[in-house]
Amino acid sequence: LCCTMSFPLLFSWITIIIARLDNHAQAISSWSSGMDTYMSESWAVLSRMPQPSCVDIPRNFTLCHGIDYARMRLPNLVDHETLDEAVQQAAPWISLLRLNCHPDTQRFLCSLFAPVCLERAIYPCRSLCEAVKSGCEKRMQMYGFPWPEMLNCNKFPITNDMCIQPHENYQVNKSCTSCNQVGTYENILDHFCRSDLVLKVKLKSVSSNYIVVQKARSIKPRETETNLRQSDVELKLQLTENNENCPCSSAKAHRNKRYLAMAYHGRNGVLVLNLLLPWRKEKVQFKKALKMFRKLDCKTLGTQIRERARRERRKKLRAKAKAAAARLGLKIPNPR
């Protein structure tokens, strides 16, 4: 072919081949440069991503301080990257915890807001989420709190050894919840709104399925109370709707002391105990709840609970700001 091809034509072919090789080399160089830029930018993004770290759960992290462990992982499992953000976003859930709607409420919420400090993240099991949702969702809806999408139970793993499961021992004496209530402001007002009778009483006797009270004085507003004011008549209050046997530990001792008792009318007109607490007016939350009884509008209880939570949050933030300002020698004026 070389012998029969003219020199000008051969030269043209060689020029074309060299040009194509040069273009190919430039393309490879450009691709290589682009990959270098891409990898450089990717590593820069990865280096800016927050790496997991462990911090102490501070005292002002009210929702989770005092739980079974002392250190938590950041970022947490709801994408809060800083401790301040986690504390702030967890604050509205304190009211749900104080409603005492399920024994594992704190365990579930803190597994997300303050996950235990381990090398890898441990999520709550789906069964834990479903148990808390079953106990709390209706109570939340009653006061205008829908179950949020961020707590959608389908997001969590089916129960296995690598997720946080519900406590098993809570199944014991599950039916007798009336005697195992907490004296929080939210829980007392919640039961007040769900009870037909609210009484200050003395206990005469306690059995396995009912209590007998005397010296009962009604403290429910007139429009919803019975004719009971102050009476020596004894009242029998069943401990459960189905008259089941269960221990009432809060009523075993000090039977001559006063108690706050709340009850509702069950089937066949029987009175069923809804809540029993020792009468402890020296307790701040108990005292605040008592003051609210006469002016409480149960239709707006959810709004009142939310507003109280906001006030508490603002108060804490202001105290924190004042402390920081004092360290700098500054003074924050009081709000009018």
TrEMBL record:
Primary location: secreted
Gene Ontology molecular functions: Wnt-protein binding
Keyword ATP-binding attributed: no
Spans through the membrane: none
Domain NTR: 176-298
Start and end residues of each FZ domain: 49-166
Positions of disulphide bridges: 64-110, 129-153
Signal peptide: 1-19
SUPFAM superfamilies: Frizzled cysteine-rich domain, TIMP-like
Keywords: Developmental protein, Differentiation, Disulfide bond, Secreted, Signal, Wnt signaling pathway
GO biological-process terms attached to the record: canonical Wnt signaling pathway; cell differentiation; non-canonical Wnt signaling pathway
Compartments where found: Secreted
GO terms for cellular component: extracellular space
Entry's family note: Belongs to the secreted frizzled-related protein (sFRP) family.
Protein name, entry field: Secreted frizzled-related protein 5
Species for this entry: Trichinella pseudospiralis (Parasitic roundworm)
